[in-house]
């Protein structure tokens, strides 16, 4: 028996090589059988792909799906209680938590809690959808794949091997290397497998009524899910608009900003020399432009004094200039100004540019040709 089986496998392999490499003659099936094969392949691909895509539709997060599979493979109560984390439930828990922190009496806090609870209801409805689809759609598809489709593929594989065995023995018969009885026996087995493969494919393709029924159940489950979601969100939307109206119509509280006096902090006396010294030692000068941070401390003090006195002391002893024309900065670091603006001169950059400052405190580079120097730099 073992020797006969090995001889058969060698005959099949030899015939396959003859057909693939040398385009050897082979038995051909009729158009009806070929069409059944195409439809059967399409049905098998559909059943396999729909299972995968439906699971992804119900549970979009691949990492969470993998975690669920790992938990279910384990034993114990954790595997039985494990549930896929619905995104609606995650968002609902977040909103409910923030609403509790703000307080139920707070309008926004109350609205967040209402929204969170509604989203958690949708998550529960989604769990119900998962169970219905798995029970009424995915499980029948899996059963079809593991029974009818598996049987069809088995008969077709057996038919392919017996066809190769028959063609190989018939080719040898023409050369006188094999008896007629062996060819006749191979032909009978070929005929049997052809009948089994054709019958199983026909049975599978005639099962379309059951598949359409399962699609209808799937559609009904989705319809129920979306209807329940719409009802939940419609009720939530009405409540939120009511809360909005309540928030708009509630009495407005008069707001009085907190002052230092409310904090029992006395105002500092400006006229006292000691107070001025304390003020200078505790309060750092405000610098509006980061460029000034690189200036030496004496220069920063001069700039601060200039900011306070520029508008009222145009003819002071500080180095300054007056703009002859308008200038619009075109490059980073340049300072825009208008005609007749007075600018404090901070330093000379090169033969064409000064570093200057407007009374507003803005600093930057100014072109020498656009200004007239009143008091030059030392």
Walk me through the structure.
- The protein has 2 domains: 8-249, Arfaptin homology (AH) domain/BAR domain (Substrate Binding Domain Of Dnak, Chain:A, Domain 2); 291-375, SH3 Domains (SH3 type barrels, Roll).
- The chain has 10 helices and 5 strands; from the N terminus they run ααααααααααβββββ.
- The chain has helices spanning 2-22, 31-58, 62-73, 77-81, 87-102, 107-174, 180-205, 208-249, 273-282, 297-309, and strands at 320-323, 342-348, 353-357, 363-367, 371-375.
- A 5-stranded antiparallel β-sheet has the order 4-3-2-1-5, covered by helices on one side.
- The protein starts with a helix and ends with a strand.
- Mean pLDDT is 83; it is low at 269-300 and 308-315.
Briefly summarize what is shown:
By secondary structure, the chain is of the alpha+beta class. It has helices at residues 2-22, 31-58, 62-73, 77-81, 87-102, 107-174, 180-205, 208-249, 273-282, 297-309, and strands at residues 320-323, 342-348, 353-357, 363-367, 371-375. The chain has two domains: 8-249, Substrate Binding Domain Of Dnak, Chain:A, Domain 2, CATH 1.20.1270; 291-375, SH3 Domains (SH3 type barrels).
């Amino acid at each position: 028996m073992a020797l006969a089986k090995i001889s058969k496998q060698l005959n099949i392999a030899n015939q396959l090589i003859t057909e693939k490499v040398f385009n050897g003659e082979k038995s051909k099936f009729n158009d009806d059988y070929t069409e059944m094969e195409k439809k059967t392949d399409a049905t098998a691909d559909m059943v396999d792909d729909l299972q995968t895509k439906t699971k992804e539709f119900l549970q979009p997060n691949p990492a969470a799906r993998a975690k669920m599979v790992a938990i279910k493979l384990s034993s114990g109560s954790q595997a039985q209680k494990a549930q896929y984390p619905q995104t609606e439930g995650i968002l609902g828990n977040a909103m409910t938590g923030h609403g509790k922190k703000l307080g139920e009496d707070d309008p926004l806090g109350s609205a967040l809690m209402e929204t969170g609870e509604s989203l958690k209801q949708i998550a529960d409805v989604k769990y119900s959808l998962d169970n219905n689809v798995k029970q009424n759609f995915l499980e029948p598809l899996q059963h079809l794949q593991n029974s009818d489709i598996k049987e069809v593929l088995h008969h077709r594989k057996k038919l392919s091997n017996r066809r190769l065995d028959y063609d190989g023995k018939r080719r040898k018969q023409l050369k006188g290397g094999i008896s007629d009885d062996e060819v006749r026996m191979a032909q009978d087995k070929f005929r049997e497998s052809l009948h089994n493969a054709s019958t199983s494919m026909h049975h599978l393709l005639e099962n379309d009524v059951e598949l359409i029924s399962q699609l209808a159940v799937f559609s009904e489950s989705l319809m129920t899910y979306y209807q329940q979601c719409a009802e939940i969100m419609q009720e939530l939307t009405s409540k939120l608009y009511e809360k909005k109206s309540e928030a708009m119509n509630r009495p407005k509280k008069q707001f009085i900003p907190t002052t230092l006096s409310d904090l029992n902090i006395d105002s500092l006396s400006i006229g006292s020399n000691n107070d001025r010294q304390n003020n200078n030692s505790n309060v750092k000068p405000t610098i509006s432009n980061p460029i000034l941070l690189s200036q030496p401390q004496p220069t920063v003090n001069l700039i601060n004094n200039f900011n306070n006195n520029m508008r009222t002391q145009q003819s002071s002893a500080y180095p300054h200039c007056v703009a002859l024309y308008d200038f619009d900065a075109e490059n980073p670091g340049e300072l825009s100004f208008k005609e007749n603006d007075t600018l404090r001169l901070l330093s000379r950059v090169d033969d064409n540019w000064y570093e200057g400052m407007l009374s507003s405190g803005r600093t930057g580079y100014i072109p020498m040709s656009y200004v007239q120097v009143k008091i030059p730099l030392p």
